[in-house]
TrEMBL record:
Signal peptide: none annotated. The keyword DNA damage does not apply. One of its GO terms (cellular component) is mitochondrial inner membrane. Its main location: mitochondrion. PANTHER family: CYTOCHROME C OXIDASE SUBUNIT 7C, MITOCHONDRIAL (PTHR13313:SF0), CYTOCHROME C OXIDASE SUBUNIT VIIC (PTHR13313). InterPro entries: COX7C/Cox8, COX7C/Cox8_sf. It is found in: Mitochondrion inner membrane. Pathway: Energy metabolism; oxidative phosphorylation. GO terms for biological process: mitochondrial electron transport, cytochrome c to oxygen. The keyword Methyltransferase does not apply. This is Cytochrome c oxidase subunit 8, mitochondrial.
Amino acid sequence: MFASSAVRARLATVAARRGFSTSRAQLASPYHYAEGPRTNIPFNPLTKYFFFRYWAFMITGFGSPFAIAVWQTYKTK
């Protein structure tokens, strides 16, 4: 009687010590995504025209408020 309760107590402590981080990653899971460099961005920086697209996007986004302000300033009332 004491032996079986001792075995159960020992197994309970071993199971309680096992951390979640020791579980194996489920690669077939739909919630697991690829890891590594350039996998956390929604575009591919390795394409041929990425440099030109990037700067066109930046110039458009940064320059639009200034162009709109100039247009509003010189607009006739």
